[in-house]
Amino acid sequence: MTDVRRPGLFLSFEGMDGSGKTTQMSLLIDRLRQEGYDVLETAEPGGTPIGRQIRRILLDGANQELSSRAELLLYFACRAQNVDEWIRPALTAGRIVVSDRFTDSTLAYQGAGRGLPLDTIHALHRFACGPTAPDLTIYLDIDRAIGLARAHARNAERAAAAQPDETRIDDEAPEFHDRVHQAYAALCDNEPNRIRRIDAAQDIGQVHADIWDAVASRVAAHALRKGPAHV
Ligand code: TYD
Q1: Is the distance from the beta carbon of residue 100 to the nearest atom of ligand 1 less than 6 Å?
Q2: 164: domain CATH number?
Q3: Which of 68, 101, 163 to mutate to test the pocket of ligand 1 (most atoms within 8 A of CB)?
Q4: Per-residue model confidence as pLDDT tens digits over 132-180
Q5: Residue 84 lies in a domain
Q6: What span, in angstroms and rounded, lies between the C-alpha atoms of 42 and 95?
Q7: Looking at the 3D structure of the chain, how many domains does it have?
Q8: 71 in ligand 1 pocket by Cβ < 6 Å?
Q9: Facing residues of 47 across strands?
Q10: What is the pLDDT of residues 32-68, one digit of tens each?
Q11: In what order do the strands lie in the sheet with 136-141?
Q12: Could you identify the atom of ligand 1 that is nearest to the CA of residue 22?
């Protein structure tokens, strides 16, 4: 899946809601920047200003009428914008891109979760992203019940702080989340060279150490430009 024509390195994080992705991404990004690498941090859905507007539609718990096909197209609209505006230029410039989720999420949530056809998702990926795809994906594997309990606690905190409602997907039935979890397991089996599965039930320091172990060798193998330290 790697686009061999560009010098940068594309890393993505995947995992069920509440797997600790946000914490682990920021630990990794801080460490890469401390080592002098030039890192672009992005997210799906989100990232660019236009992507953040699309995110609001996708995650607002009030949007119960959003159809599965409209949802799928909005995720890819967001991703196409992210690739065109941020990700591809950063990779061309030799930077490290770290994205919170990418197309694996769509395969898991819209493919397995919603039951939409995988060949359509692959075709949309090719249209939206061209050859741009992660070189390495960190999958934080968490028990579905633990992850959802953490996600619901976070959603309650957001509601108490009057932050925007982002509960639409978290509020799906347990069977939906089970299908998503199974889909991630299958993706790991199918692409062991790209996707590194990490046990997210370990303590924060050990999860970070496992992630660094996976990332450091890829970073070293790439002739990456070191930029000004950001920290
Ligand atoms: P995210 O911001 O990563 O939230 P969390 O920290 O709860 O994991 O993702 C938002 C939600 O969007 C999450 O429930 C997964 C869902 N999602 C999809 O259903 N399809 C996609 O393609 C992506 C990128 C995310």
Answers
A1: yes
A2: 3.40.50.300
A3: 101
A4: 999 999 999 998 888 878 877 887 888 888 787 777 777 888 899 999 9
A5: yes
A6: 13
A7: 1
A8: no
A9: none
A10: 999 999 999 999 999 999 999 999 999 998 999 999 9
A11: 39-43, 96-100, 9-15, 136-141, 195-199
A12: 6
